Every structure is written in structure tokens, then in C-alpha cells.
Amino acid sequence: ADVAIVVFEDLQCPDCAKLHPELRRIAAERNVPLVIRDYPLPRHDWAFPAAILARWFTLGSAAHGLDFRSFVFLNQDRITVANLREAAEAF
């Protein structure tokens, strides 16, 4: 594609969580790739391990990885360092 939406996301960031569904919608409507780069902020204690999990799911299927990211954003207020793996297994 000549054009793509490139976004840097922190899976623990509330602003990223708000924007994520809109980016997915726009990418689908405009038929342009949504390229996600992980940018976990040091102040977010579970953002880095969540990014690793998202990449792991993406290795199996790009769509599955994107769905995992959406799942994390939807459940962001319930995820902690202690239960991140459990949340990923529930996904």
C-alpha cells in the first residue's frame, strides 16, 4: 500500500485504549494497513510484558494479535502485573 496508519502503542495507556478502536475502524473503512509498534512506557509496570504477549499472539496470526490488543485495552482497568498472564490465558 502507498499509505498506512502507523501507531506507537502502550497497552497500559488509557489514551491508547481510547484511540485503538477508532484506528481499527478507520483502517478497515479506508482499506489501509494498521501498523502497530510497541512503545511501552517505563512507568507502566505491565506494558512491556503485555507487548511481548501481543507479539507472541501476532506470530500465530496478525488478526489474533490485533484482537489480543483490543482485549487488553477493553480489560485494561482489570489487568495487573499479577494477573496479566491469567488474562492472556483467558483470551
Tell me what the structure shows.
It is a single chain. The chain is mainly alpha-helical and 91 residues long. Helices cover 56% and strands 11% of the residues. It contains four helices and two strands. The chain has a two-stranded parallel sheet. β1 (5-9), α1 (14-30) and β2 form a beta-alpha-beta unit. α1 runs antiparallel to α3 and α2 runs antiparallel to α3.
- The proportion of strand residues reads 5-15%
Q: What's the total helix number?
A: 4
Average pLDDT over all residues? 97
Q: Helix- and strand-based class?
A: mainly alpha
Radius of gyration: 13 Å
Provide the helix percentage. Answer: 55-70%
| Side-by-side strand order of the widest sheet | 1-2
Molecular shape: globular
Question: What oligomeric arrangement do these chains adopt?
Answer: single chain
Measure the end-to-end span: 31 Å
Largest sheet: 2 strands, parallel
Write the layout of secondary structure elements.
Layout: E1 5-9, H1 14-30, E2 34-38, H2 47-60, H3 62-74, H4 84-90
Parallel strand pairs: 1-2
Helix pairs in contact: 1-3, 2-3
Q: Brief overview, please?
A:
This protein has 91 residues and is mostly helical.
Keywords, separated by commas or semicolons:
single chain, 91 residues, mainly alpha, two-stranded parallel sheet, 4 helices
